[in-house]
Design a protein that fits this description.
Length: 544
């Protein structure tokens, strides 16, 4: 087997977004497109010769082909060993778990997360460092800079490997080991949670649940953990057979796209607990019977109940949330007497806080929750955390959430997404806010008065790195706020995200519908940003 050096020329559009490079499959199929990006990853790294690389993806269309290319390139570039999930499959949190457990140098994860899959849909690739987490900005910036000047890549001339058989093979000088995709992750979950207590809950005739895998990567993980190890009936799982096109669905666990699960939890004879995970298994949506738990509340509630879970009963070091996530978790941190951190959107910003032992739990409004057990958000982990809390408290999801609001007050929260908007118009909207923001301070809009308006900038408390332009925040004197930012994960046009939050201490008002409670603020957002006029849309694509 010989190493081939292939001449290439740069592509101008390989800048990683919120979570790696996400493009249409057809773009990745452009000759050398994938290879350029992979070589740029390797060229941005130092000291990996002879080290271990973890490779896996969410099983979407193009996963198998991309993995064969990456294996040959990693071998040509001098990795000593490559651990690859069977069939090329690793959920994002499982990949993080395996990088950490086997002290790998890093990992390459193939996924476009919650974006649809198939020949005309999306694909993605990202690099994770040796801590198991997404590469920080200084690495993604370096990768991008290399993509702009790359002129060659290295690849081994070899046949495709059999990825479906466990065990080791040699690829040139490199050992490739196909590993079980689920076992290490399942074992880790068993160490964190009270499996005996959850088993008892799942065996009870008083309790029923439904987990929806959205035909994506979590199916086999849910089967092994929830059914095989915890004894849930097979009927508790739906859409758990992974498909290359996710069954034509949009594997984003929210009230719109996870409609199969919503139908069950809001239907007749609804189970007590429902949950869904996304394309690559790092997101989660939690439902009670006819009851939706917002991701921001979920983070706060898990933190407040963390003493019930074996892994966290010794206490939390701190709680971190992304800036647009509601401040509900901050209230829990304050009561627990621990630090809370506000980071930009993107799980990569939690890495330093977790590594430095400053935060134990992290969460984002975008249906992401996780802890220091890995360095990615983790969908099934959140489901198991909720099951552990339900098993310990013997109360319904709704009761637990409402009791939480009684103690802490309710942070009404909603996100409105305008997907596939013309990019120029979306940029104009954000530029206008940047230009005119300062003049808003002191202005009154109905019952609200603007206290501040800025473009969020974050200084990492561990390494001092600064990330600016992370979202326009408009704060009001009563602590309500409106946030605008453009998504960094879409592949078509721009997605404008509007986040709206207000705090309500009065229990009598807690049962209001969030859209009702936030109505005035939503109208103010439109007035200030001219959303309808600039996007040409009279309503959002998705409301959560
Ligand atoms: C990624 C990031 C998350 C982020 C989410 C949404 O999640 O890892 O940190 O909150 O995208 O980002 P945006 O608002 O820029 O679209 P995932 O699940 O897509 O990997």
């Amino acid at each position: 087997m010989s190493i081939k050096v292939v001449s290439t020329s740069p592509f101008p559009d390989q800048k990683p977004g919120t979570s790696g490079l996400r493009k249409k499959v057809t773009v990745f199929q452009t000759p050398n497109y994938l290879e350029n990006f992979v070589q740029s990853i390797f060229d941005s790294l130092e000291g990996f010769s002879g080290q271990t690389l973890v490779v896996g993806g969410d099983g979407r269309y193009y996963n198998r082909h991309a993995i064969q290319v990456i294996l040959r390139m990693a071998a040509a570039n001098g990795f000593g060993k490559i651990l690859v999930g069977r069939g090329g499959i690793l959920s994002t949190p499982a990949a993080s778990c395996i990088i950490r457990k086997y002290n790998a140098f890093g990992g390459i994860i193939l996924s476009a997360s919650h974006n649809p899959a198939g020949p005309d849909d999306d694909f993605g690739i990202k690099y994770n460092t040796g801590n198991g987490g997404p590469a920080p900005e200084k690495i993604t910036d370096a990768i991008y800079s290399i993509t702009k000047s790359i002129n060659a890549y290295k690849i081994l001339e070899a046949n495709d490997l059999d990825l479906d058989r466990l065990g080791e093979t040699k690829l040139g000088e490199t050992i490739v080991e196909v590993i079980d995709s689920v076992a290490d992750y399942a074992e880790l979950m068993g160490e964190l949670f009270d499996f005996d207590r959850i088993k008892t809950l799942l065996a009870s005739t008083e309790f029923s649940m439904c987990f929806d895998g959205m035909h994506a990567v979590t199916g086999p993980y849910a089967q092994e953990i929830l059914v095989n190890r915890l004894g849930a009936p097979a009927s508790a799982l739906q859409n758990c057979v992974p498909l290359e096109d996710f069954g034509g669905g949009h594997p984003d666990p929210n009230l719109v796209y996870a409609h199969d699960l919503v139908d069950v939890l809001y239907g007749d004879a609804a189970p007590d607990f429902g949950a869904a995970s996304d394309g690559d298994g790092d997101r989660n949506m939690i439902l009670g019977r006819k009851f939706f738990v917002t991701p921001s509340d979920s983070l706060a509630i898990l933190a407040a109940n963390s003493h019930l879970v074996p892994a966290y009963k010794g206490g939390l070091a701190g709680i971190a949330r992304s800036m647009p996530t509601s401040k509900a978790a901050d209230r829990v941190a304050a009561r627990l007497g621990i630090e809370s951190y506000e980071t930009p959107t993107g799980w990569k910003f939690f890495g330093n806080l977790l590594d430095a032992g400053k935060a134990t739990l992290c969460g984002e409004e975008s249906f992401g929750t996780g802890s220091n057990h890995v360095r990615e958000k983790d969908g099934l982990w959140a489901v198991l955390f909720w099951l552990n809390v339900l098993a310990a408290r013997q109360e319904s999801v709704e009761t637990i959430v409402k009791e939480h609001w009684q103690i802490y007050g309710r942070n009404f929260y909603s996100r409105h997404d305008y997907e596939g908007v013309d990019s120029d118009r979306a940029n104009t909207l954000v530029d206008n806010l940047r230009k005119n923001g300062a003049a808003l301070v002191g202005q009154k809009f109905g019952t609200y008065e603007v206290a501040f308006c800025d473009d969020f900038s974050y200084t990492d408390p561990v390494d001092g790195s600064v990330s600016s332009k992370q979202g326009i925040r408009i704060g009001f004197t009563d602590d309500s706020r409106i946030v605008f930012r453009l998504s960094g994960t879409g592949t078509q046009g721009a997605t404008l995200r509007l986040y709206v939050e207000s705090y309500e201490p009065n229990i009598a008002k807690h049962s209001l519908d969030p859209q009702e409670a936030l109505k005035e603020l939503i109208e103010i957002a439109d007035r200030i940003a001219q959303i309808k006029i600039l996007t040409g849309r009279d309503r959002p694509t998705v409301i959560t």
